[in-house]
Write a structure and sequence with these properties.
This protein is of the alpha+beta class and 479 residues long. The protein contains 23 helices and 13 strands. It has 4 domains: 159 residues, Beta Polymerase, domain 2, CATH 3.30.460.10; 87 residues, Hydrophobic Seed Protein (Orthogonal Bundle), CATH 1.10.110; 149 residues, no CATH class; 51 residues, no CATH class. Helix 14 crosses helix 17. The longest helix has 25 residues.
Length: 479
């Protein structure tokens, strides 16, 4: 369906002019060189929804090397890391412009790399897009902009539903990652997914295994950082895709019997994720580390589940096991080392608060809590608060009050002792001078001893620190 604007096209044009006035300038550059250019995919969808961003996607009949020359002349910069797939990009003002040659793209049965072939017309290009709402285009080089919608994407956009341009089976066979994209777009846009699409996702879930870990990771991050990640995660679990890319999550659906009761760990984890998101203002907005930690904090429970005689279930040390499993899974998904370390640390620490009973925190315990959390202290505050999902209001209020008292104690000790900068009262050079030793493991042991004293007693001062060090050293030499 190709039509002169129409209401949807007019809305897209207005949005484009207001948010991306340089798009028409780029179109003129391609037109002057004798080529076509159209805004395509997500930006068209978002323009119609009134949420156009600063990343614009275009499609053209120009081959990649030609697009590269036009973009460089127009923007003065260009990057071509995606040129093997027909894509080149440039940035002008605060907007990124990505231009891709008309193409078809598909995966062989056992290949992890797509095969790309260039097409001759925009209709063929749109037919290979993931969903109808992303298979609309706005042709910008024909004088009057033309709205192109061959698969009724506008109708599906109005119905807030995700369908594929052709059969879902063919679409997911061409690129299995589209199954995860369905879950991601559902979460981002709060859309339903057509029944035939869900059925294909379920029947073809195993095909996701041919997709590289990096592409799976990037798609999952987009889903997790959406406004409604529960929707997409539930879809991945229900279709069996999560069992392949993130198996620890569906494993949280522990069997519950009438004799051994425990809360639904899977549902609990999704609720903790939502409650952590509600507290993200404390972390200056959406935060990948806290969302991963909230979702994964209990993944050690299936491996540590133990039935208690007479009823009940225990999960001893599930935070330790969970920290290890978290590190392994995030490594498999090729997350950065910083994210892996931070998330696994939070998972390992998420029960620390509950180990101190009803709020009887000594100064020593507070210092150790802050020391172990380090730069993740605010994240740990958020995770611990989010981890309370009890429906018993009295219990929930009590836990919140106890944790608030801990935060207050931390605040007081922070002012008194600069807890975030806890160090031994003596440095390595002073230790070597006093003990008359050279750099060695002895110095490290001495500093560990002094740090433990500092954590237990607060600041010692130079004189007492030297006395305690010499007592420790004399006792060590006797042994």
């Amino acid at each position: 369906m190709t039509s002169a604007l129409g209401a949807a096209g007019e809305l897209a044009i207005r949005s484009l002019i207001e948010r991306a006035p340089l798009a028409s300038s780029l179109a003129d550059a391609f037109k002057s060189a004798g080529y076509k250019l159209a805004l395509v995919g997500g930006p068209v969808r978002d323009a119609i929804l009134g949420r156009l961003g600063n990343d614009l996607d275009f499609t053209t009949n120009a081959r990649p090397e030609v697009s590269k020359k036009i973009l460089f002349a127009w923007a003065g910069n260009v990057w071509d890391t995606g040129i093997a797939f027909g894509t080149v990009a440039a940035k002008r003002a605060d907007t990124t412009f990505e231009v891709t040659t008309y193409r078809t793209e598909s995966y062989e049965v056992d290949s992890r790399k797509p095969e790309v072939e260039y097409g001759d017309n925009i209709e063929g290009d749109l037919s290979r897009r993931d969903f109808t709402v992303n298979a609309m285009a706005l042709e910008l080089t024909q004088g009057t902009p033309i709205f192109i919608d061959p698969f009724n994407g506008l109708s599906d956009l109005g119905k807030r539903i995700l369908r594929t341009p052709n059969s879902a089976e063919d679409s997911f066979s061409d690129d299995p990652l589209r199954m995860m994209r369905a879950a991601r777009f559902a979460s981002q846009l709060n859309f339903d997914v057509a029944p035939e699409v869900l059925q294909a996702m379920t029947e073809m879930s195993g095909r996701i295994s041919i997709i590289s870990a990096e592409r799976v990771r990037d798609e999952f991050i987009k889903l997790l950082m959406s406004s409604n990640p529960r929707l997409g995660i539930t879809m991945l679990v229900d279709t069996g895709i999560a069992a392949i890319v993130l198996p620890e999550i569906p494993k949280l659906q522990l069997e519950i019997d009438e004799h051994h009761h425990h809360k639904d760990v899977y549902e609990h984890s999704l609720t903790v994720l939502e409650q952590a998101i509600a507290l993200e203002d404390r972390l200056n907005g959406p935060n990948l580390v806290i969302r991963l930690a909230a979702l994964l904090h209990d993944i050690g429970k299936p491996k540590t589940r133990s039935l208690i005689a007479g009823g009940g279930v225990s999960f001893h040390h599930h935070e330790v096991v969970g920290g290890r499993l978290t590190k392994e899974r995030l490594k498999t998904l090729r997350f950065s080392s910083d994210v892996i370390d931070d998330v696994s640390t939070l998972v390992s620490l998420h029960l620390r608060f509950h180990g101190y009973g009803d709020g009887e925190w000594t100064d020593s315990a507070v210092r150790r809590y802050v020391r172990d959390a380090g730069e993740l202290l605010e994240h740990l505050h958020v995770l611990t608060r989010a981890d309370c999902t009890t429906r018993n209001k009295r219990k929930a209020d009590s836990l919140a009050a106890i944790y608030q008292s801990l935060e207050d104690r931390i605040g007081v000790l922070m002012e008194e002792e600069e807890l975030s900068k806890i160090r031994p009262d003596l440095d390595g050079a002073e230790v070597m001078r006093l003990l008359n030793v050279k750099p060695s493991s002895i110095v490290g042991d001495a500093l560990d001893f002094l740090l433990e004293l500092r954590l237990e007693n607060g600041p010692l001062g130079q004189e007492r620190a030297e006395e305690e060090l010499m007592k420790w050293w004399n006792a060590k030499e006797k042994n």
